[in-house]
Fold each of these.
Amino acid sequence: MTDRKDQLAANLARVEERIAAACAAAGREREEVTLVVVTKTYPASDVRILHGLGVRHVAENRDQDAAPKAEACADLSLTWHFVGQLQTNKVRSVVGYADVVQSVDRVRLVTALSAAAVRNGRELGCLLQVALDAESGERGDRGGVAPDGVGELAAAVEAAPGLRLDGLMTVAPLSGVYAGRQREAFDRLVEISSRLRGNHPAANMVSAGMSGDLEDAVAAGATHVRIGTAVLGDRPRLG
Ligand SMILES: *Cc1c(COP(=O)(O)O)cnc(C)c1O
């Protein structure tokens, strides 16, 4: 356990350095960027160690793994982000522990999240996941609404009881015109965010950037980076 703590502390310090350097290079304050550590596939004991090291935001992408982990860490003051593709039959469970759902990508999901949030008597933060490579009216291979569907989905969240529209999230596309062009992809997300904020000024979160491309995300203006492997190590399986 001590070894694991040393390892996580060293990894976290390296990631912190990268974020600080990227902020400095972009002329941004370090406080403008929130580190969200993606703990998927790793045990609750790692979450506990990370909390001890100062991490306050964690993310998960599968309800089956996340629900017991969140329960095991219920005594810690942590903000839980859900970042995976979300089936409506999992919504009740997810709303039981998630503070923010970053992967809102269709009206049906908005309806289900709203009903569950109201039932739980709480307000749930929502980010719209944008699939930069999706065609009009389509969803991305890894979830996400097409850029031209953002306005309609934002209006649905805004009108839904129990939900709060916090902003946008994206995963850099593996195919299409943005494949291998993370900086351009994140610039595009920030542009869509600017347009969104015209109608929804409070929706100012921009979640972009992972272990391999956090510098591009910070340079583009991301407010939240989602870091898994660079903190926890290579995942034992796809997650
Ligand atoms: C796993 C995951 C991450 C973290 O990716 P790493 O490359 O491990 O940093 C970020 N965002 C989402 C949506 C993920 O599923």
Amino acid sequence: MLPFIDLQPVTQLVAGAARAAWDGVLERCEFVGGAGVQQLERTIAAYCGAPHAVACASGTDALVLALQAAGVTPGMHVALPNLTFWATFEAVAQLGAIPVLIDISPDDLQLDLDELRRAHETYRFGHAIVVHLYGWASNALRALRTFCREHEVCLIEDAAQAAGVELDGAPLLADAAVATLSFYPAKVIGGCMDGGAVMTGDAALAQRVRSLGNHGRATHYSYHHVGWSSRMAGLQAHYLLAVMQHADQIVADRRRLVAAYRAQLGGLAATLHGPGPGITENGYLLVLACDAPAEPIAAAFRARGIAVARTYPETIDAQAPARGRFVAVSALARSRAHVERVLNLPLYYGLPAHDLAAIVSAAREIVV
Ligand SMILES: *Cc1c(COP(=O)(O)O)cnc(C)c1O
């Protein structure tokens, strides 16, 4: 079976540097936090064009910490897209807040700004999450940021899939009020275990995130908040520092692979989605919306020995634990229709050229 993702090429790229750094971690017992985590925070902040970055234990924790630091409390409404990874919804629900699900825009598959505006008229939420899904971002991102600023909505940008994405040649997150990353191994900048980060230009918010993720500490045994334990391990920070040495190479290779797919996948019975003008994708996912339901098409690829994915096969509102726990101002029809048709072909740093050729020729026979 040709894999959907293979972590070996990145792992081999960084193994030598990671092993050397880990020797030092063991000698210094630099297990939780420490100089490596601090250096990673500076490296990630610079890469994202953000003044502050705070490392934590996962991308989901980064969302919960960002929401709580931004003042979300039980019973508040928080807007988020109906097409995202479940963690975006979970983070809001874990804080006891009420998700306001927003449908997608059909051209870029990202949160629809017009529907967000309408939902704001109804629910007057003070917080919203936009998810930069699939490795690109909304064509209306600047307008969305402006709307949120003007209406005093704290906009949290879930960039778990968007490390390396650019807007007009600058890092996508450079102008984000608050953004989060995941370093789950399968992400574009993936670690060797769970990890995440919160980026912001607001020094006080960064300080609250840092405290909340470290038991709400003021000093070692006095506390500002009821927080919890969400810190990064030294082994993970040093592994990620080794990955960051190759971040440009990793993203460039993914972009080259997406371009190769795009050049060869014209004329299929599917729409090949991608970023709008001014946005440079990071090559996280190749997204086809098939003209026919995608499940049998995915099965046909698997029968030919090609592991494909469907990101995501269902929307948030269709999940059993979401029932009765969200509000919406529409029937969420566009996201619900999209998930029936979505198909992702293998895409990862180091995908061999002969595998890509085999996947393209299978696609030319199957997606017709
Ligand atoms: C991966 C992901 C997360 C969660 O990150 P974890 O590190 O797995 O907790 C959140 N949001 C989106 C959009 C993701 O893709």
